[in-house]
Amino acid sequence: xxxxxxxxxxxxxxxxxxxxxxxxxxxxxxxxxxxxxxxxxxxxxxxxxxxxxxxxxxxxxxxxxxxxxxxxxxxxxxxxxxxxxxxxxxxxxxxxxxxxxxxxxxxxxxxxxxxxxxxxxxxxxxxxxxxxxxxxxxxxxxxxxxxxxxxxxxxxxxxxxxxxxxxxxxxxxxxxxxxxxxxxxxxxxxxxxxxxxxxxxxxxxxxxxxxxxxxx
Length: 216
What we know:
The structure is a single chain. Helix 3 (116-144) runs antiparallel to helix 4 (149-164). A hairpin with a 5-residue loop joins strand 4 (55-60) and strand 5. The protein starts with 13 loop residues before the first helix and ends in a 5-residue tail after the last strand. The strands form three sheets. A four-stranded antiparallel beta sheet has the order 1-8-3-6. The protein has a four-stranded antiparallel beta sheet with strand order 2-7-4-5. By secondary structure, the protein is α+β, with helices and mostly antiparallel strands. The longest helix has 29 residues, at 116-144. The chain is built from six helices and eleven strands.
């Protein structure tokens, strides 16, 4: 296997990657769309890195209402906190489309067969990944704080535009997924999007949006 293009493995040499493979701490597995990669309530001992596809981190409450907490795209990691803390998962990790996942067992960080310098490099990369994940979760909190549907949409779209550096961007969700992410009813979200389009605030086509002007 070639070195994976991921912030977690950034800067690793071919020799270092080979050492990880030889340790037996890496494995890959493919999942069809909607397959549950990790189930809420289970304990995991490996973090996942998305090689292909998209993974959604979802929460399902006792009444069956689903919330999407984050969308994990190719190159990004997930479940790293649970893998290291040993706590049971409070969320599901679900394949939003056909996915290929690389699993890195936590033993890689203590295995005597792996050089301490490589383990230190991985730990520093993992810390950076976790900090970015905290920022992403904070962003969702900001997006679900406004009380109105329009307020949540504007907060979300503003964050996407700032991230892309332009007023035209794509979001990683369809309408139902966007509603789940923003804790909104899908029909209410769709209705508000149409109102905002009719008022000249934005244009959209499926998951591509263009912000035209800021509301007064």
